Amino acid sequence: MLQEKRDFKISIHIATSLPLPSERDHLRPRIDLIVFMIDIKSKCSLKNVEASLAYVDARFFLGKVCFLVTGVGRVNCCSIEINAISKLGEAYCSPVLFCELELEGVRVATAQRLLRMLQICAGLVPGFSALSFSLLMRNSADD
Hints:
The structure is a single chain. The protein is built from 4 helices and 3 strands; from the N terminus they run βαβαβαα. The chain is α/β, with parallel strands linked by helices. It is globular, with a radius of gyration of 15 Å.
């Protein structure tokens, strides 16, 4: 994602679970988007995300959270049902993106999509808010 062209500064913090350590709260930049990554081959991955959700402020579920499901190109190796992940997205009113990170084209397209979501969530797209984007994503998924 950091290699994609953009006209804004991006800072990525990777954590294996939440909550984040509180001793660095005063140094942490504003969080505009939380992307929960779920490896479709790992039930532990889903359980970790589900446990971490309890530590996210409810305001983030107004368009500033999404779930990125990786490994979808190997459906025969799935340990998690797609339906369970879709229900998670519905329960938290958050979009679910499916991708195969091993395919460069898909990886680049996913990075571009996440960057566009980040721009919207950070308020860098005039006239478009994270909440309106979230509603648009939900409505298009329902069609």
